[in-house]
Design goal:
Blueprint (H helix, E strand, L loop, with lengths): L1 H10 L4 E5 L2 H13 L4 E5 L5 H15 L4 E4 L14 H26 L6 E5 L12 H21 L5 E7 L5 H8 L5 H8 L8 H11 L11 E4 L8
Parallel strand pairs: 1-2, 3-4, 4-5, 5-6
Helix pairs in contact: 1-8, 3-4, 4-5
């Protein structure tokens, strides 16, 4: 989804600085978008490292003097019960899904203060709102992101900084493909049958929600949880 967020925000006129730990993939995406006439800058970023975040923000400050938008999108999926989950796997999931939001937000605030329209969007999950058996660390991390979002909105609202969370359901990404492989045969069709819209979403459908949340049209929306799941949670 992150690649689509970058594209759509750039299409809306933003100069988008984006990061990934995969240099080859990030540089390839940057070249494609630059060739299409969009303004993007790729940074090698390990979202679990404070020093990496500080380096990215230092460059943004030198180039622009402010930051208008932060989208915390990094995420991994770990399918394991508490009994099966190792401490290392637990920590990896928490670091990438939750700690990254803390670090990204912590070091962005000074730059966001210089913006007249500062907005943060944190990508959580429907499983940050309800439980899912067998996804112990994932649910814990995404649930934390939902409340971190509200805390950020309440803390920095008086300074004009908005913060909202987006809670995607089943989105057609490489992560979902990997998840489906680990499930019983027929799982994909069964999951889609349970979704009232009867299909998985495309990444672009989540990106449109991100674009809305950082726009002037959402100027009074803060501390909200926007669910993008084809009405799956509406049945629970």
């Amino acid at each position: 989804m992150g690649a689509e967020h970058v594209r759509r925000l750039a299409e809306e006129g933003a100069t988008v600085h984006f990061g990934d730990i995969n240099i080859e993939l990030g540089e390839l995406h940057a070249r494609k978008l630059t060739a299409a006439g969009l303004s993007v800058v790729f940074h090698r970023l390990d979202v679990t490292k404070a020093s990496d975040w500080m380096g990215v923000y230092r460059e943004i400050e030198l180039r622009h003097g402010r930051l208008d938008i932060l989208v915390n999108n990094a995420g991994v999926l770990d399918m394991a019960t508490p009994e099966d989950l190792t401490e290392d796997d637990w920590q990896t999931t928490i670091d990438i899904n939750q700690k990254s939001v803390f670090l990204g937000t912590k070091y962005a605030i000074p730059l966001l203060r210089h913006s007249d329209s500062a907005a943060i969007v944190n990508i959580s999950s429907i499983f940050g709102l309800v439980a899912a058996p067998g996804y112990f660390a994932y649910v814990a991390s995404k649930g934390a992101v939902a409340l971190m979002t509200k805390a950020t909105a309440a803390t920095y609202g008086p300074e004009g900084i908005r913060c909202n969370s987006v809670h995607p359901g089943y989105i057609k990404t490489a992560m979902l493909d990997e998840e489906i492989v680990g499930l019983p045969a027929g799982a994909s069709a069964e999951i889609q049958r349970q979704i009232p819209l009867r299909r998985f979403a495309q990444p672009a459908e989540v990106s449109e929600v991100v674009v809305f949340l950082v726009s002037e049209a959402a100027s009074y929306v803060s501390g909200a949880e926007l669910v993008v799941d084809g009405a799956l949670l509406a049945q629970r």
